[in-house]
Amino acid sequence: MKICVIGTGYVGLVSGVCYSDKGNQVTCVDIDEVKVNHLKKGIVPIYEPGLKELMLKNVKEGRLHFTSQIREGMEGAELIIIAVGTPAKENGEADLRYIKAAARSIGENLTDYKVIVTKSTVPVGTGQIIKKMVSDTAGHSNFDIASNPEFLREGSAIQDTFQMERAILGIESDRAEKVLQKLHEPFQTKIVVTDVETAEMTKYAANAFLATKISFINEVANLCEATGANVEKVAEGMGYDQRIGKAFLQAGIGYGGSCFPKDTQALVKMGEKAGYRLKIVPAVEEVNKEQRLRFIEKLRYAFGNEGLKGKKVAVLGLAFKPNTDDMRAAPAVDLVPRLEQEGVDVVCYDPVATEKAKEVIKNLQAAATLDQAVKDADAILILTDWQEFKEMNVKLLKLEMKRPIIIDGRNLFDPIKLGKLGYYYASVGRPIVQ
Ligand SMILES: NC(=O)C1=CN([C@@H]2O[C@H](COP(=O)(O)OP(=O)(O)OC[C@H]3O[C@@H](n4cnc5c(N)ncnc54)[C@H](O)[C@@H]3O)[C@@H](O)[C@H]2O)C=CC1
Ligand SMILES: O=C(O)[C@H]1O[C@H](OP(=O)(O)OP(=O)(O)OC[C@H]2O[C@@H](n3ccc(=O)[nH]c3=O)[C@H](O)[C@@H]2O)[C@H](O)[C@@H](O)[C@@H]1O
């Protein structure tokens, strides 16, 4: 099948690469010419394991193309996939300006029948907005709209696509369903066929539910800290119950990233607009915001009367999660400037996200290696669960530091072991050892 993908962010690029790998002819279109030129030269703008290799393979074998000209991408395509960004507006609502611009340019170039499917996460009703804009601009309705929300995770995007657990096909016609069924055939996944509005809602409900699981376990963790229980064991004990499940019960510094924070906000706004006030999701957001700030208090507590001013703190991890360089809504974006305001000398280290972090954190002091970051540090603050941090030799590390204090936002270590090594170790939902 010939496919045109609009937008080469995470979703557009990963989908384009994976669909081409399944034998389709794919052209990815982006208005960002610099990005397109880079992609044409084989330069991938994001860090995502396995993506570059797979992209180069499909380009070489002639199935994957890049262009900044939508007309070129749409020519002969049976399916158009909209995968542009839907960031949050100032008030939390989803900003549909890129969606609308894409719909307009599709309309301007629509000469023959196509299925126009939205993969971007969009509020219920957006499919109908797209339909109207395309037909108004094209002057005809020789097309079908559809919704096929994306569920990939950054850091494991390729695997998540090839082994997708389900596909939601929100359709309005048999013809569109046929095209989307054909697209998903090689993935051998569970298919849920529904209307466009239900498909749009399913994506927000899934993300909000996952965010709820995280905030729920973080609240339990905070209660564990106040009562002396251990959240890791609580989560394990809960997780064996298949109705609850083990996934997404890892207590930590709270969720970040390009989607949970913006999608929970957008869902609340969707409720307001529809005249239904959501109650759980705002609480999930509140817990998440507070969770980050607790780590400043944990540091303050570790230094007692001495206070934070003048202390050197090594922040380990900038990206919002491992195996990505995405800095969108990463805890570090909030915490590094706040610590600096308190007079802390903050030195950061991340295996891949430093360059992107410099774009969003002013005057970021970045070390080139983990060793450099922790040298003479009064404390370490762990924000991302990179493998490199899990494998740190804490015994040797202690010799490099000025003081053996670790505040761990990801529960990477066994408190008993760190206590025995002479550390002050405060993690999440587990007793402090010293
Ligand atoms: N990042 C992720 O892991 C996931 C994202 N999503 C959703 O997918 C959508 C896209 O997300 P990302 O890929 O992260 O977005 P992004 O913001 O990283 O990339 C969007 C791309 O679209 C391009 N673009 C904007 N307007 C355009 C137009 N009119 N024509 C052509 N290109 C245009 C931009 O230049 C940019 O390269 C969002 O709605 C997001 O919520 C869904 C699942 C996972
Ligand atoms: O809509 C999206 O963009 C995507 O959002 C998330 O994917 P992603 O944000 O890439 O990463 P996750 O693995 O879900 O992690 C999100 C955040 O939650 C945190 N998290 C995750 C799991 C957990 O148990 N505890 C926890 O704190 C992570 O550290 C991270 O900050 C969803 O998992 C994807 O299904 C969805 O497609």
UniProtKB/TrEMBL annotation:
<dbReference type="GO" id="GO:0016491">
    <property type="term" value="F:oxidoreductase activity"/>
</dbReference>
<keyword id="KW-0560">Oxidoreductase</keyword>
<comment type="pathway">
    <text>Nucleotide-sugar biosynthesis; UDP-alpha-D-glucuronate biosynthesis; UDP-alpha-D-glucuronate from UDP-alpha-D-glucose: step 1/1.</text>
</comment>
<dbReference type="Pfam" id="PF03720">
    <property type="entry name" value="UDPG_MGDP_dh_C"/>
</dbReference>
<dbReference type="Pfam" id="PF00984">
    <property type="entry name" value="UDPG_MGDP_dh"/>
</dbReference>
<dbReference type="InterPro" id="IPR017476">
    <property type="entry name" value="UDP-Glc/GDP-Man"/>
</dbReference>
<dbReference type="InterPro" id="IPR036220">
    <property type="entry name" value="UDP-Glc/GDP-Man_DH_C_sf"/>
</dbReference>
<dbReference type="InterPro" id="IPR036291">
    <property type="entry name" value="NAD(P)-bd_dom_sf"/>
</dbReference>
<protein>
    <recommendedName>
        <fullName>UDP-glucose 6-dehydrogenase</fullName>
        <ecNumber>1.1.1.22</ecNumber>
    </recommendedName>
</protein>
<keyword id="KW-0520">NAD</keyword>
<dbReference type="Pfam" id="PF03721">
    <property type="entry name" value="UDPG_MGDP_dh_N"/>
</dbReference>
<dbReference type="InterPro" id="IPR001732">
    <property type="entry name" value="UDP-Glc/GDP-Man_DH_N"/>
</dbReference>
<dbReference type="InterPro" id="IPR008927">
    <property type="entry name" value="6-PGluconate_DH-like_C_sf"/>
</dbReference>
<dbReference type="InterPro" id="IPR014026">
    <property type="entry name" value="UDP-Glc/GDP-Man_DH_dimer"/>
</dbReference>
<dbReference type="InterPro" id="IPR028357">
    <property type="entry name" value="UDPglc_DH_bac"/>
</dbReference>
<dbReference type="InterPro" id="IPR014027">
    <property type="entry name" value="UDP-Glc/GDP-Man_DH_C"/>
</dbReference>
<comment type="similarity">
    <text>Belongs to the UDP-glucose/GDP-mannose dehydrogenase family.</text>
</comment>
<feature type="domain" description="UDP-glucose/GDP-mannose dehydrogenase C-terminal">
    <location>
        <begin position="314"/>
        <end position="415"/>
    </location>
</feature>
